[in-house]
Design goal:
Order of helices and strands: HHHHHH
Shape: elongated
Number of strands: 0
């Protein structure tokens, strides 16, 4: 793919990484509303900084082109865990669940558009035979 698709894909990946980085910084700062929300979900009051480390690590790996596939896999696991927590709390179809799902989908679509290695791995078309 040439032209617009790789740029659009890279932009999508960077938007997801940026949102995760913002979330990680927020978790690191642990404002009272976030501590309350995490306590409601069953997390210890001091879990924010440890969770921030995981979130920021995933965001950084996703943002670097060479490590973006690994970052996408880790982000998928991280967001899947967040979705599972909301499911456990009975918040099925809640905005946080839908946001996590959307972030994961956007990350993978963006990576598919931006990274030729992933497009080759997920070959959706049969290679055309050479007429030479």
């Amino acid at each position: 793919m040439r032209g617009f698709a790789p740029v659009a894909g890279r932009t999508m990946v960077l938007v997801v990484a940026g949102l995760l980085a913002f979330d990680g910084v927020l978790q690191f700062l642990s404002p009272p509303f976030l501590v309350e929300t995490m306590a409601h979900a069953g997390f210890a009051a001091d879990a924010g900084q440890r969770l921030a480390f995981v979130t920021l690590s995933c965001a950084i790996l996703l943002a670097i082109p060479a490590t973006a596939p690994l970052g996408a896999v880790l982000v998928t696991g991280f967001l899947g865990g967040a979705i599972a927590i909301h499911f456990r709390l009975g918040e099925i179809g809640s905005p946080p669940q839908l946001i996590c799902l959307l972030l994961g989908v956007v990350a993978w679509i963006g990576l598919y558009l931006a990274d030729p290695r992933l497009r080759r791995l997920i070959a959706t078309e049969e290679p055309t035979a050479s007429l030479a």
